[in-house]
Each structure stands twice: as C-alpha cells, then as structure tokens.
Amino acid sequence: MSAERFTLQDLADRAEIADLLARYSRAVDRRDFAALPALYAPGAVQDHGEAFCGEAALFIEWLRQTMGTMKTQHLVANMLIAINGTEAQGEIYTINTHIFPGEPATQMTAGGRYLDHYVKREGRWLFAR
Fold first, then answer.
1. Helix or strand or coil: residue 13?
2. Per-residue confidence (pLDDT) for residue 3, from 0 to 100
3. Of 73, 82, 89, 129, which sees the most CB atoms within 10 A?
C-alpha cells in the first residue's frame, strides 16, 4: 500500500475540515444552535436518513425540537477526506453517546458514519451535504 503525498495546502484544508467537524460536534453537544448556521454553505442539505433530510436551517430547528433534555457527546474518529479544488468528500466515523434523563437515566452509545460533501467558500470550508 503506497502512502499518499499531500501538499501543505492539502494538509491545511484537511485541518480546517477536521476543525469544522469538531465545531459541529461541539455545537450539538452544547446545544449551541446559534453556532450551527455558520458551518453550512448556502443551500446546504443535512441528510440523516429516515430521521431527517432537508435544508440545514430546518435541520437545526429539528435538532432544537427533538433533543429535548437529552445530553450528547459526539467523538470524531477516523476521517478520510478527498479534496478536489474547492470541493471535498468526507467519510467520517463517530462514536456518539446519548443520555436521556429520568429515573433512572438511560444511556445509549451508537456508532455512526457521516458521508459529507464540503465546499470552500470565501476561504472557508463548509458543509454542503
């Protein structure tokens, strides 16, 4: 298996996309819904399969309504990112813990895989889908 060679720009782009993923996870986990819109390109679509598929702004409102008092922790793991100019594709693995309050509280841990499409607009990487 040969190692892929990256330019300094490739590495900078990958670091910015990794930061985008961390900022998304942090905003969801802290219920900072006001921080989420800045992570999406205009016209972005958020696709969570059967749970939700639609415009990013509607997704953020859906999150606000469905999270209730649930607490979450999203941990980003393996990241495979393919960059092609001002667009990129990502296959991102996550481990997500959800705690539902109650007596007793219930905890659910789930693995996930995000298949993301990113675009670079005005020098910033954003979610497109």
1. helix
2. 61
3. 129
Write the CA distances from 36 to 12, 47, 101, 116, 119, integer angstroms.
22, 15, 24, 16, 16
- Find tokens 């996870």 and name the residue: 25
Could you tell me which of 10, 45, 25 has the C-alpha nearest to residue 116? 45
* pLDDT confidence of residue 45: 97
Q: Are the C-beta atoms of residues 19 and 35 closer than 8 Å to each other?
A: no
| Residue 44 C-beta-side C-alpha neighbours within 13 Å | 24
Q: Which helix (H) or strand (E) holds 79?
A: strand 71-84
User: 């930061």: which residue's tokens?
Assistant: 19
